[in-house]
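REQUEST ID: PR-0412
SUBMITTED BY: lab tech R.K.
PRIORITY: routine
TASK: structure prediction, single protein chain
INPUT:
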Amino acid sequence: YGSNLTNWDVERTDRILELSDDERGEIGTVVRSYTSWQYPTLEIGPGDGAWTESLVAGDPLYIIDRHQEFLDSTLGRFNEIYRKRIRPYLNGSHGIPEFDFTMLPQDQFGFIFAYNYLNYKPIELIEKYLQEFYKKLRPGGRMLFTYNDCDFPQGIGLAENNFMCYTPGKKIKAI
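STATUS: complete
OUTPUT:
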């Protein structure tokens, strides 16, 4: 009944979305098409950095996570020279409010990516996140994020089994 797992261990092992090679390839292609050396890129919740290599064209590349261990793991994927180009930030822990992004520049990001991060947030918090992210995008900037779309039976099942939050897709699209 007790566990030696930390919060970040649980997120690392229990919150994994399985993707086929084709799905992973499609997402990677889209992500790379939206990143450019001309504009900063932001990755929200990189985890262990599975997608970060697809974002390295953004200059600079910002990463933000609630666990220092994930930031360290992501940074560890790169050599020392490239690590100096990445701007890591801790958010949502150690007294920093979860959706406080005041440390990030306004109206600058060409691309924001949040894979498997908002899936576990209630709709009220997702709305706050999206409002904050919108302020960070430059005109013409794009954001790609995932959420648990409960307009489909699979999403409802994930919510009913307490794996992800209940998030109506129609409401997300309206936001």
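NOTES: The beta strands are 41-44, 61-65, 86-90, 109-114, 137-145.
REVIEWED BY: pending
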